[in-house]
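Preliminary data (for renewal application), flavin-adenine dinucleotide complex.
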Amino acid sequence: MKLTLKIWRQGGKYKGEFVTYSLDDINEHMSFLEMLDVLNERLIRQKEEPIAFEHDCREGICGSCSMVINGRPHGPLKGTTTCQLHMRHFRDGDTIVIEPFRAKAFPVIRDLVVDRSAFDRIIQAGGYISVNTGQAPEANSIPIEKEVASRAFDAAACIGCGACVAACPNASAMLFTAAKVSHLALLPQGQVERKRRVLRMVAQMDKEGFGRCSNVRACEAECPKEISVSHIARMNREYLFAAVASETLA
Amino acid sequence: MTSIYQKLDSKIPPGPLAEKWDYYKNQVPLVSANNKRRIDVIVVGTGLAGASAAASLGELGYNVKVFTFHDSPRRAHSIAAQGGINAAKNYRNDGDSVYRLFYDTIKGGDYRAREANVYRLAQVSVNIIDQCVAQGVPFAREYGGLLDNRSFGGTLVSRTFYARGQTGQQLLLGAYQALSRQISLGSVKLYNRHEVLDIVIVDGKCRGVIARNLLTGELERHSAHAVILATGGYSNVFYLSTNAMLCNVTAAWRAHRRGAFFGNPCFTQIHPTCIPVSGDYQSKLTLMSESLRNDGRCWVPKDPADTQKHPNDIPEEARDYFLERRYPAFGNLVPRDIASRAAKAECDAGKGVGPSGLAVYLDFSDAIKRLGRETIAARYGNLFEMYEKITGENPYEVPMRIYPAVHYTMGGLWVDYELMTTIPGLYAAGEANFSDHGANRLGASALMQGLADGYFILPYTIGAYLSKEIRTGPISTDLPEFERTEREVADRIRRLMSIGGNESPESFHRRLGKIMWNKCGMSRNAKGLQEAIEEIRALREEFWRNLYVAGRADEFNPELEKAWRVADFLELGELICRDALHRNESCGGHFREEYQTADGEALRDDENYMYVAAWEWKGEDEQPVLHKEPLVYEEIKVAQRSYK
Ligand SMILES: Cc1cc2nc3c(=O)[nH]c(=O)nc-3n(C[C@H](O)[C@H](O)[C@H](O)COP(=O)(O)OP(=O)(O)OC[C@H]3O[C@@H](n4cnc5c(N)ncnc54)[C@H](O)[C@@H]3O)c2cc1C
Ligand code: SF4
Ligand code: FES
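Predicted structure:
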C-alpha cells in the first residue's frame, strides 16, 4: 500500500515541525512500528536522521510506545497500543499524521519521544504497600474474594503509557493515578496506608503539573488497557474520606 | 582449542543438600546496620532480579544506585512474562514438595544444572509467593478466596501461580513499587535512561561502572563496593526472538571481556508456541504462553497434501496429534525443547501448515466443547486477543498457527553459589547468570529464579563479601582505573561514529540473526557451526568497515545505542557457536544432529560432558579458553530424560 506520513520532528536539525514522507511498499500485515522501521531504514540509507520513537516489547505490555496517530493516542483501534496496531487497519492512499504525546508534564525529548518520569514520581509518592522483604505472612492466610481480586487486577493492568494524559484536554493524570490507588485500596493488604497513599499521590500529581479532571472521559476511551473511569470515582471518594480524616486528626 | 581443568570454586556449602542453605545462612558473616550505610552497591537492571535486589538491599540499609537504560524501571522485559511463576506451596495437595520442584528442575534441565543452587531455589520459592501477595500482587484466586494454580510443561503437579496472562507484569509492578518506596526513602538512587557500558576493576575487584547518560550522551563514572548485573538474557543475538526489542548482552559481555567467565553460552531455549514469522519486515516474534498447552492440542495433517486445506475441513481421523502420540505420559505438556523439536520434525517432513509451511496447529475446539467458551476466555482471553490482533484470525473459531522461536537463554555469566562471577565483587542475577536451569528451563521458573536471586539470595550472600569491605571507605572515581576505562568507552564510541559506511546497525543485526538461527538454532551440526563462526567473523569485519551511525554521540541517539549493542552481539555470537561446537552431545535446548537416538531424541554424553563450560575471554583475535566445572549429583540419580 501507498501512504503519506506527516510526522512531528523535533531535535537535531528540526525545530519542531511536521515533515512529510511518502511510502509505497507497505505490506498490510506489518505492524505500525514495522512500517516506521521501514521508513527509518530508508532515511538511514539516505544519510538522514531516523525518526526517534519509543518502543520495546512490541506486544502491548511495557507501555513504551507512545504516539498520537491521526489525533488519537495509540491510533484508531480500541484497547490497542501503537505497537499492536497493524497496517491492515489503514487504507491504500491514506495520509497518517503522527505526533508525540503532548502534555506540559511530558516534555518532548526528541521527535516522538517524551519524558514520562512524572509517572514514576507519582508512584514513589505512595503507590506501594510498605512491606520489607521477609516480613510477609503466609500467602493463603489472606483470603481475598475472587471478585475483589479480579477488580484489583483490572486496575493493576495499567501499563503506565500516558495515553490517558495525552487524550485529556486538561492533560490530567487522573486515570493513571486512580488505577494505582484503586488497585491497592481494593485489597486487604492495602488498607493500612490507604489514606496516606491517596493524599500523597494526588499531591504529587498536582505538583508535576498535570491538569484537573473535568469528566470528559477521553482517557477511558483511549486507554489501551480499557481502564475504567469508575476508578477515578473511587479515588475521589478515597481522597475526600482521607482529607476529612486528616483534618479531623489535625 | 585449549582446555584447562582449572577448578572453578563453586563455593557449595558442606552438608546434606536439604541443609546447605540454612547452614550457609547461619555462618555467613553479617554487616552491621551502621556499617551498611557506609557501603555502596550498584545494581544494573530493574527487571524482576534487579528491582527486587535493589529494593531489598535498600531496605537493609546499603546505599544503592540502580541503573536502567529504560525511561522507567517498570519497562524492563520482565513485564512481558505471561504464564506464571512456580512455587512448591503444594496448595493443591497433589504431592508437590520442595524436593519435587527441585527434581523437576534438574531433570527438565537435562542434568546440566548445579544441584545445590536448584535445591535452594525450590526452597525459597514459597517465600516469593508470600512476599508478592503482601505487596498486593493480584494473583488469580478461587471462589473460596485462596490462590489458584495451573500446570506448566515438564511437571505432573499444579504449582504455577498466575495473574491472568500478565504474571510478569504484576510481579514486576510489585517489585517496582517496593523499589519506588526505597527511592522515596532515599536509600536507593535511580539512574534511568543510563546505559552501563563497562565495569571498572581496581586491584582485581569490581569497583564501579561507566554509564552513558542516554539523554545527553555524557559518560559518567560511578563507584561502589560491589556491582550486581541483573541485565537479562541475550536471546536477541538471534535478532528475531520473543524478547523485547531492546534486550541485549552489553553489560554481561563487557564484564566477560574484563574477566567474568561466560557459562554455557550455547544453552538457548526455543519456545514451541510462538506466532510464526510473516515477512522480511518482521521485527520480533510474539510468544503464545505455554499455559495454552493446558487446554490446546497440537496437531498437523497426517497427509502433507492436506496442509493448505482449511483446518476445520480436516476431519479428526486425518489429524496427527503428534505430541500426544509420541509422549503419551506428558502429551501436550512435554518440556519446551521436546515440543519445539517435535514441531520442527513435522514441518521438516512436509506437514507444516500456513503460507510458509512453518507452523503447526494449536487447537482449542475440544476444550471449548468441554469447558465452554467462557471458561476458555477467562483463562486465556488476553492471549487470544493478542493473537487475533497480530494475525487477524479468531482462535475461538480456527486453530492457532504456531511455530518455535528463540525465547530464553539458560547460559550467562558463570556464578558461584553466592551468585558472584569470577570477578570479585561482581555479581550476576536473574537471566543474566547461567545458574539454575541447566540445558533447558521449565516454564514459570525464570520469574521464580529472578525473584529468588533478588529478594532472598543476594541480600544474604553479598554480605559475605561486603563484610570485608567495611573499612574500605568511599571509592574515588578519580582513580586511574576509572579514567582509563572511561577513555576506552569514549574511544569505542568515537570509532563507531566515525566509520561512515553505508549499512545500519539494524541491518547488521538482522544478518547476524539469520546466521545464528540457521546454523545455531533449533538443531546444530559441526559443519554448520564451523561455517557460522567464519560467517560471523566476516560480518564483524564488515560491520567495523561499513557501519553507518546517524546522529551525534553527544545527544539522545538510539542508533548509537543499537550500534554498540550489535557490536557486542557480533562477538557473543561467535562464542555461542564455539560452545555449541565443543559440546559433542545433545542435551536440553542444545541439539546436535550428530548425537540423537534412533527415534530422534537428544542423546546426552554424561561421561564426557557433565560439566558447566565456563569460557574465559582472551582478546579479540584470540581463542577463548574453556574452564570446566564438573557437575556432581549427590541426591539425584542421573537418568535418561523420558516424558513418554
Ligand atoms: C514473552 C515472554 C514471556 C515469558 N513468560 C514467562 C513466564 O510466564 N514465566 C517465567 O518464569 N518466565 C517467563 N519468561 C522469562 C522471564 O520473563 C525472563 O527470564 C525474566 O523476566 C528476566 O528477568 P531479569 O530481571 O533477569 O531481566 P530483565 O527483565 O530482562 O531486565 C533487564 C534489566 O536490565 C536493564 N539493562 C540491561 N542492560 C543494561 C545496561 N547495559 N545498562 C543499564 N541497564 C541495563 C534493562 O533496562 C532492564 O531493566 C518470559 C519471557 C518472554 C520473552
Ligand atoms: S490508565 Fe490506561 S492510558 Fe493511562 S497510563 Fe494506564 S494504561 Fe496508559
Ligand atoms: S512497545 Fe511495549 S507497549 Fe508498545
